[in-house]
């Protein structure tokens, strides 16, 4: 098995709407909703909208490796 190349991304926005997160990750928005309700994805309320906190999620993912 070959080693996977390390992928580095630059986060341009610290928060993202669940629909956009769903589009980018390829996961159904209903699944993303479930993850949010279970507290598996960090969120931040901005006005009336609950946004996925991409910055915190990214850090958590790096810590789990």
Description:
The chain is an alpha+beta fold. The protein has one domain. It is 43% helix and 17% strand. It has a 3-stranded antiparallel sheet with strand order 1-3-2. A hairpin with a 2-residue loop joins β2 (43-46) and β3 (49-53). The protein is globular and about 45 Å long. The two termini are 19 Å apart. The model has no long low-confidence stretch (mean pLDDT 89).
Tags for this entry?
65 residues, alpha+beta, three-stranded antiparallel beta sheet, 3 strands, 17% strand
Structure summarized in a few sentences:
This protein has 3 helices and 3 strands. The protein is of the alpha+beta class. The chain has a 3-stranded antiparallel β-sheet.
Total strands: the figure is 3
Fraction of residues in H or I helices: 40-55%
Low-confidence runs: none
In whole angstroms, how far apart are the ends?
19 Å
Outline the secondary-structure elements.
Blueprint: E1 15-16, H1 18-25, H2 29-37, E2 43-46, E3 49-53, H3 54-64
Antiparallel strand pairs: 1-3, 2-3
